[in-house]
Amino acid sequence: MIKKSFMLLIANSFSRVANYLYTLFTANILLLTEYGLLSAIMPFQSLILVLSSFGIAPSVSRFTSIYITDDRKDKISSSLLFVPMGILLFFILFALIPFILNFYSADIRNGIETPLKIILLVIPLGVLFSVFTGILLGIKKVNFMAISLFALSLSYFLLSIPLSYLFRVPGASGALVGGYVIGIIVSFSLVLKSGIKLRVRREHYKEFMKIFSFAIPVSIFSLSLVLLFNADIYILAHFFGPGIVGIYGMASPTAGIVPSFAIALSAVLLPELSKLKSMEREGIENIKISLKASFDITLPVALSLFAFSTPIIYFLFGIKEGGWVLKFLSIGMLFYSIFYIASTSIQAMGKQWTPMKITVLIAGINVILNYLWIPKYDINGAAFATMVSCIIGMILILKSLDIFFIPDKRFVIFSIAIFLLMLIFEKVVGLFASRTMNLLVYGGFGSPLILGYYYYLKKKWK
Predict the structure, then answer these.
(1) Closest CA to 338 of 295, 400, 304, 301
(2) With 44 labelled, which of 23, 124, 134, 402 sits at a CA distance of 20 to 30 A?
């Protein structure tokens, strides 16, 4: 299971690298105000990304795994009935565009109508892609799922460069649509190569309703995640103009690297736990191992991003603002990693409504905190609200899971030692005028420390 997780970790890491490159190149190609417009509509791209990747795909994966175990491969095609629902959601949101635009500040709403219409096309495409990748994961073709993620991520990054130059913000939105089209073609061909024949029949409707019933709380859970991680930028776009939104949109994506392993591990954990007849022994042990592995791997990453936040933001985007945004969000994502593993474990136990209720609660808390703190503290208030919400969520979900784990103190001490060295180094060295010099100096100092930690982790982890 851990080996499969590392394969997905590589794919997810590549996907996040492609996301960073997309963010980096569009942020440097577009003006700050133009990038602010793009950032203002990205919550809608996150809507389908989270709904499909964390809602539909795990549900499809779980039932596909069950069908394979019970020798009922003909039922796998039932998952395709998610696609008409994606098309319906697209038309509903398209009709609501005038109301959506009214929420934004005047400086933003006038420049986002066309890009918003384009980015909504990702909804039905993302649903279809998630069905195919869910099938691949359910039949244990983790390598094929990884290839599909590679194709999606690489294609929309490569498309973003010429399209952003030629068509500015609408072009950047169109690159995402093109990426999903290519991802669908690749994932569909790999499903066929795996020997799965997809043909929807009338009798599949009843089976689909079982998948859909499982997916409802998981999807509400996913939609709550959209609120949890996008309420900040959406509310910022309500109170402020594209310049402030652009700075936040540049700073916040970097923190997304922190939960990469947890998300990859969860994708494998859900179908594995679903096959177990009893959760009392093997299941509980797998959950504890997953929680420990996630914490041990993500802790030094989160602390490193906290320590070197300003040099990282300056190197990537050439701005000196946003350092505290990355500090707050990196810590928030550390707690979210534990939250996500625990949520997946509870879902595998058949208790999908529990993580849904908790996520809805903390998403609501996040919205309230953003409304309270953004007018006074702008981007820092938004990031701090998200961090607090993630901490509350982790506490609640671990209490519901009723599994207690203690991080290995050796790895915690090692991570804190690295963190303190980085803090001292950043305080002494400061920020260089050259972006390249910041990369060389801070990368040269921090990389050996992180690599040393993971070498020690490999040797000592049990």
Answers:
(1) 295
(2) 134
